[in-house]
Design goal:
The structure is a single chain. The chain is an alpha/beta fold and 279 residues long. The longest helix has 17 residues, at 245-261. The chain is 45% helix and 13% strand. The protein folds into two domains: 17-83, 434 Repressor (Amino-terminal Domain), CATH 1.10.260; 94-276, Endonuclease, Chain A. It contains eleven helices and six strands. The chain has helices at 17-31, 36-43, 47-54, 62-72, 77-83, 97-105, 124-132, 140-153, 181-195, 245-261, 265-276; strands at 108-113, 164-170, 200-205, 219-223, 229-235, 238-242. The chain is globular and about 65 Å long. A six-stranded mixed sheet has the order 3-2-1-4-5-6, with helices on both faces. The chain starts with 16 loop residues before the first helix and ends with a helix. Strand 4 and strand 5 form a beta hairpin.
Length: 279
């Protein structure tokens, strides 16, 4: 897998919607007499997170906007601002933006999935097959935009210094044949190739176990460049980026147990090769 140098584009002349909303938050915070450390403590978030939001490098989520509105007595101004943000080319739901931002610069990523393969490992054809089953049905233009956004996310694995990434995948995710036999085989081949890339570890949690630590569903653990540990969980119509160290620690313990219950990386490669008919 190629590793072209990861570069950010030049700063735009005009502020992005996130920069404008972040500047508004900073102005209101200062007017209410809060320093950044004081507001971060009151909101139970890290100082680096608040700094990133005010600088427009991290989106202000609806949940945080509502919390800041209450703390700063803004009458719902920030909530309205978030609700009226551009749809980011209709590609990424607003509730997932904070996770995408954290993922983009993470130095470690650990992901457990039990329904579909993680977006970072999906082929374009597999993505399209998943969107074919989306309810309600969406337009081809929406699907194309969302696939482009997901493919762009995968560029983090090709950074000059990529993150250390670990995946624990339920065996069901590598046996379901979304898109048919051709798409399935291409996806399996891609998984096998990824399993051989330095810095990427893939382990399959086999079917038929008497029990395992992932019964409550999928989740992702992230470590930021500032060594802040975050967790992300997603539901049918929303998500939560978790900052609370106690909650993150619980999910980290679950992930450690899942890794011990899954096939080791070499056994996983063997299973993928078996499914591909190479053994």
């Amino acid at each position: 897998m190629a590793n072209p140098r990861f570069r950010r584009g030049p700063r735009k002349k005009y502020p992005t919607p996130f920069e404008a909303l972040g500047a508004q938050l900073g102005r209101v915070r200062a007017a209410r007499g809060y320093t950044q450390p004081q507001l971060a403590t009151a909101a139970v978030i890290s100082l680096s997170t608040l700094e990133s939001i005010e600088q427009g490098r991290r989106p202000l989520t609806l949940e945080l906007a509502q919390q800041f509105d209450e703390l700063l007595d803004t009458g719902g101004t920030l909530e309205v601002g978030v609700e009226n943000l551009p749809d980011l080319a209709a590609a990424i739901p607003v509730w997932a933006l904070a996770f995408m931002d954290a993922e983009r610069t993470a130095i470690t990523i650990s992901s457990f999935e039990n329904q579909v393969l993680p977006g970072l490992l999906q082929t374009e054809a597999y993505m399209r097959a998943l969107y074919d089953y989306r309810v309600p049905v969406q337009s081809p233009e929406e699907t194309t935009g969302q696939i482009a956004a997901r493919l762009e996310r995968q560029e983090i694995l090709q950074r000059h210094v990529p993150p250390i990434v670990s995946f624990v995948l339920s065996e069901a995710t590598v046996r379901d044949r979304f898109g048919g036999s051709e798409v399935y085989r291409e996806q399996l081949s891609h998984l096998r190739a990824c399993a051989g890339v330095p810095g990427i570890t893939i382990q399959i949690l086999p079917l038929g176990l008497a029990g395992h630590a992932g019964l409550s569903g999928p989740f992702v653990l992230l470590e930021t460049p500032d060594h802040e540990h975050l967790a992300y969980v997603e539901t049918q119509r929303g998500s939560q980026l978790i900052h609370d160290p106690d909650e993150v620690s619980i999910l980290a313990a679950k992930y450690a147990m899942l890794r011990s219950q899954a096939l080791n990386p070499e056994e996983t490669k063997g299973l993928l090769e078996q499914l591909l008919g190479e053994r």
